[in-house]
Amino acid sequence: MSETFCIRYQDVRARRPIQKLSMAYASRDLALNAAFLIKEKDFDLLEIRGSEGSLLTKIDLEKALCVATA
After folding, report:
1. Between β-strands 44-50 and 5-11, what pairing exists: parallel, antiparallel or unpaired?
2. What is the 3-state secondary structure (H, E, C) of the chain?
3. Looking at residues 33-59, what average pLDDT do you find?
4. Which residues contact 27 (CB under 8 A, 6 or more apart)?
5. How far is CA 60 from CA 1, 7, 15, 28, 67, in A?
6. Which long-range contacts (C-beta less than 8 Å, at least 24 apart) are formed by 37-43?
7. Measured distance CA(13)–CA(25) in Å, rounded
8. Residue 14 — pLDDT band, cuts 50, 70, 90?
9. What is the rounded distance in angstroms from the CA atom of residue 33 to the CA atom of residue 45?
10. Average pLDDT, the chain
11. Is residue 43 a contact partner of residue 11, using CB atoms and an 8 Å limit?
């Protein structure tokens, strides 16, 4: 079975920040594309987690999105 990825993010517009989890994506690239769209909606990205234990932290995620949009 191949690794799937999901995005953990939070809605900071609410009175109390609410953490949310995205749907599962079949690849890291698809998860990064979705993270870009989530960020455009003014949500705070926290991390991308893989089902096999891989992790893309908030700092690395921000760097990846910065490079992808440059």
Report:
1. antiparallel
2. CCCCEEEEEEECCCCCCEEEECCCECCHHHHHHHHHHHHHCCCEEEEEEECCCCEECHHHHHHHHHHHHC
3. 93
4. 5
5. 26, 13, 27, 13, 11
6. 38/7, 38/9, 39/65, 42/12, 42/13, 43/9, 43/10, 43/11, 43/12
7. 25
8. confident
9. 13
10. 90
11. yes
Across 6-39, b (16+ Cβ under 10 Å) vs e yields: bbebeeeeeeeeeeeebeebeebeebbebbeebb
Closest CA to 66 of 26, 44, 39, 30: 39
Question: In whole angstroms, what separates CA 58 from the centre of its chain?
Answer: 8
Q: What is the pTM of this model?
A: 0.85
Using an 8 Å Cβ cutoff, are 44 and 70 in contact?
no
User: Cβ–Cβ contacts within 10 Å for residue 56, how many?
Assistant: 21
